[in-house]
Amino acid sequence: MVGITRRDFAAAGFSVAALSAAGCASAGPTLGQAARGAGLDFGSAFDREVLTDRAYGELLTAQCTKLVVENTLKFDWLRPKGPQADFSHADRIVNFAKQAGLPVRATALVWNDWTPPWLDRLSVREVEATFDRHIEETVGRYRGRIAMWDVVNEPFFPIQRRAGGFRQGVWFNALGPAYIARAFKRAAAADPGATLILNEAFCEQDDDWGTEIRPRLLALTKKLRDDGVKIDGIGFQAHLKPHLPHDYRRFAEYAQSFAALGLDIHLTELDVDDSSFPDEPAARDAKVAAQLESFLTPVLGVNRLKSITVWHLSDRFSWYLGHEGYKSQVRTAGGNPQRAPRTHLYDQDLRPKAAWHAVHRALRARA
Ligand code: XIL
After folding, report:
1. Which end of the chain has a smaller Cβ tally under 10 Å, C or N?
2. Would the pTM of this model clear 0.90, i.e. be above it?
3. Looking at the domain assignment, is residue 289 inside a domain?
4. Number of structural domains, the chain?
5. Which of 44, 49, 71 to mutate to test the pocket of ligand 1 (most atoms within 8 A of CB)?
6. Any idea what DSSP says for residue 300?
């Protein structure tokens, strides 16, 4: 195995005592402990930064009961130049979580977005072979070490106006909608013990995208179940967008309909797009916190909700940083486009914000 993370871990200066003490907002329970009290796991995205940013690694380890690989296991990160994968970075990341004693979820095994250009030059038969090879090699390599896979990410993208509302891309174009069942079957064969989920965006919104995707996702899931495909759960990304129409009670009812099918529910990428909120940090933080609480309060009532994962714990690694779409939304809302996003639970200096307390309160209320 390429990963030598025990050494990395020691070199980065971790100690068990430091890990257990890190990142508590007060002497009270961590987010992970509060989540466990509510019968849930609490996770965060993480990636290569943990190998060099000791403080952030400690914070993640102290606060989370699971970790989710943000990018390194995506197809374009594993196989940027051709079909041969480089697993060396992924090994180190997965080993980091193992050393920290935390289970791993990985995303996204199959996604029609962000595929590398070399795939576009393949014939349909070559795409099929690459698809199967990717799943077998990747899931197989981490069999027993990656507990949960987002097998298919974002199956729908109605703005592309394809029949069925499916997201276009190299996999869909070669295999049609059948790529979804094929991915689940191959993943189950490569690691029969892994938890397999279908992950989708936008369902929390009541705009045109959300209202079109919701029934399509439910119908797809029912069809997979009826066809005997192993699917264990559904992931709702929950990148909340307060500037769009939303009704979180209605979303909770919708999520409940998957539980009625016997599936577990996961919130997989929770954060709040704060682009429409005021520049002033305290005012912005209060609004982010209120948005999280208004979302979590009804959603935490959903049966079979099993985990909440934030799409990074700290603004230090916000995926909105430097994002052109985010800046232009801030500008449109009358804010300063150069301001730093405050979209997560901890600020850039790893201090807990109002958002941390809002999530903590909501979890305690569920307990
Ligand atoms: C994002 C990562 O956070 C970024 O670092 C990367 O540049 C692009 O992908 N929905 C998803 C996630 O399913 O995989 C995306 O993650 C965020 C939106």
Report:
1. N
2. yes
3. yes
4. 1
5. 71
6. T
- What is the spatial distance between Cα 233 and Cα 213, in angstroms, rounded to a whole number? 17
Amino acid at 334: G
Query: Which of 188, 160, 189 minimizes the C-alpha distance to 172?
Result: 160
Confidence band for 12, pLDDT divided at 50, 70 and 90: very low
Read out DSSP for 62-98? HH-SEEEE-STTSHHHH-SSSSS---HHHHHHHHHHH
Q: List the CATH number of the domain containing 58.
A: 3.20.20.80
What CA–CA distance (Å, rounded) separates 150 from 57? 23
pLDDT in tens, 126-148: 999 999 999 999 999 999 999 99
- Assess if residue 1 is contained within a domain: no
For residue 346, how far is its CA from the centre of ligand 1 (angstroms)? 19
Separation CA 85–CA 1 (nearest Å):
14
Q: Note whether residue 287 is domain-resident.
A: yes
Q: Which residues line ligand 1 (CB under 6 A)?
A: 70-71, 107-108, 153, 201, 237, 269, 319
In angstroms, what is the span from residue 45 Cα to ligand 1's centroid?
Answer: 10
In angstroms, what is the span from residue 231 Cα to ligand 1's centroid?
A: 22
